[in-house]
Structures are given as C-alpha cells and as structure tokens.
Amino acid sequence: MDYIKVCTKDELPNNSQKVVNLDTKKIALFHYNEKISAIANACLHKAGPLGLGVVRAKYDGMYVTCPWHGWEYNIETGGAPPGYLDQQALYEVKIEGEFILISKEPIVNAHKAHHDNPLLEDLMKLKYQTSENSLNVLGISTTNMSANLPRFSTSEDALEKSLTYAQEKYGAAIKMVKLRELEFRNCEGYYSQHSHACTWPCSITQMNPHDGMTEVYESMILWADIVIVATPIRWGNASALYYKMAERLNCVQNQITISNRILVKNKLASFIITGGQDNIQQVAGQMMYFFTDLGFTFPPFSFLGWSRGWTAEDMDKNVMQFKKSQYIKRTTMEIVDNCVELLKQIKNVNSANINAPLPKPSDSLSSEIENKDMNL
Ligand code: FES
Hints:
Blueprint: E1 3-8, E2 16-22, E3 25-32, E4 35-40, E5 54-58, E6 61-65, E7 72-74, E8 90-91, E9 93-96, E10 99-103, H1 121-124, E11 136-141, H2 154-170, E12 173-178, H3 203-207, H4 213-223, E13 226-232, H5 240-248, H6 250-259, E14 268-274, H7 280-294, E15 303-306, H8 318-324, H9 326-346
Parallel strand pairs: 11-12, 11-13, 13-14, 14-15
Antiparallel strand pairs: 1-10, 2-3, 3-4, 4-8, 5-6, 6-7, 9-10
Helix pairs in contact: 2-9
Bound molecules: FE2/S2 (inorganic) cluster (FES).
InterPro entries: Flavoprotein-like_sf (IPR029039), FMN_Rdtase-like_dom (IPR005025), Rieske_2Fe-2S (IPR017941), Rieske_2Fe-2S_sf (IPR036922)
Organism: Flavobacterium laiguense
Pfam family, one: FMN_red
C-alpha cells in the first residue's frame, strides 16, 4: 500500500483535528485520546466538511458531527452510529519520524445507505400536479390565533371569499392552508455555512417529513397554479408566520443558485393584506419581491389591501366596517379574475425558456479564492 505524507505531528497535537489534501481528495484527520485516525472529509449526505465538525465521546466511541446537518461518524472506524448502515471511507495512518502519512487508498470504502423517504418522493422527483387545463387555486393564510380562542380574521375571511369565488365562478380546485395549524420548525440557516447546505427538499423536512412545511412545499410547488397569500399587518410588516414560511422557502430559490433549477413554473401569485392602520404598500412590495425571486408571475394589480388609517385606534369597529365593505366584496373577486385571465396566457409559456437572472456562486468576487476545508 502506498502512503502519502500529509503533515507533521506538531501540526496535529492531541485533541485536535484538521483537513488535509491527499492528491485531489480531502481527508479529515483526527487526533483524540492519543490516537490518530483519518476518514474522508466529504460527508456522505451533502458533502459537508467533517474535519470542521465537533468531536465528542458518544455511543460506542468518539464521533464527529457534520457541521451542516448533524450526521455522525465514528472517527476511528468511519462507521455511522449504532443502528445506521452508512460507512465513511476510512484511511490507514502511519507515523514516520516527525511525519503523519495516510494510505493513498481507503482501507474501508465508503457506503451510503438508502435514506430516501417515500413521503418525500414527490418533492424529490418534482412530480408536478398541474396540467395544461388545471386550475388549482391555493390560499395560504398566515394569520396567527389560538385554536382555543378562534376569532374573526379579516385577511383569512377575504381569502375564503376569493377561494369560494374561484370555485363557483371558474370551477377551480381550491385548497386552503392555514400556517397556524401546521407545526413547522424555523429555518435553521444551513445556507449560512455553504449554499449547498441548503437542500431541496429542505434538510429540516428531510430530517422530519412530518414537519408542516411538507404540506406547503407540496401544495405551493407541485399542486398550485395560482397562490393567494393572505396576511395581517403586524407593526407595519407581514405576519411572523409569513416570515417563518418565507425563510423555509429559501430552499426553493436556492435551487436556482446552486443547480440552475427553477422549481416554480407557470404559476401566479396575488396577495391579500389587511391591517388596522397602515403600511399596505410596503408589505405588498416585500411580498412581491420575494415571490418574484421564487419564480412567480403576477397579474396586474396583484394585491388587495384593507386598512383604516393611522388614527384608527378604534379597532372594535374594524371588523364591523370590513364586513360591510363593498370594496372587499368586489376586490376579492377581482384579484381572482385577474389571476385566471393571466393564467390562460402563462400556461402557454415554455418555462424552459425562462431564465433566472440571479447571481451564481461563480459570480462572487471571491469565487477564485479556495476554501481549503470545503469539498465543493
Ligand atoms: S449532514 Fe453532512 S452534509 Fe448534511
């Protein structure tokens, strides 16, 4: 077996670790409990850098936790924790004088066990449920309230009106998703480590397919032709639940960045924004910016707003006035009419010809600089 010098012993004192090059490969080298061991640096999941992970005594030995999404490997055997079948490539280590050498080839080959979850198959394979003739209208209500104390919501009521109208006037298939009824985790910011750490489907969803965002991804990306998002205004912004969902949609937009893959095709979005006082235009601008970056198209006049002005602190009259409003009655129908009208046209657009003029990692001013610890 051939061995290659990778560093000196001084460069790897006890209780330390580092990433070294072995020809074109990167190896995570560990020195714990006076033992030196070497496994491939690229995590079997999405190639996270194992050499940067935290090492701790766990289960039946010393384990490194991948810094991207938490897969674990025994640093001396390369094996996954008890009960898992994954095996990371393991290299032999030799000491010659002051030098640490690693076998040129692994002494145990890598093996990735099957991890696909049937619950996520449609998302993984992007099995779109739209067709040339489909008219699937999705409403997403982002208002929050306690299930024990239900109350009237202006944004949700307007959304229900729009969906009912779409069904009655156009025979649309309709679906309402209420974010407050879905339990889902906040985005945990894996993108901040590396653009490839933000995966499709979302890595949180992959860890837990019962996470409520699975329903949002399936309904919004695979099922809907038209998405109408309704939000109340909270301190001049969309609701906290809206932002919680938006952060978890980074994985949709990130597919464009890392794989040049636009997941949202031939779909329209419109918005319902209601508040006691003001700031409708700012909220609409925020939402429209985000949804265009996902790949949605907007009809002209793509939102309806309801507010009663800066001095309208008499909130007890808000619902009363809303229920009487002819403007609400009319515009909940008009935003649907505009969407349906435009949908007929965008159904004929060949989305393969649509570009996403977004920055790619290669556009970065630091793209030429190598990060020696990374595998990608
Ligand atoms: S856990 Fe290592 S890349 Fe996902």
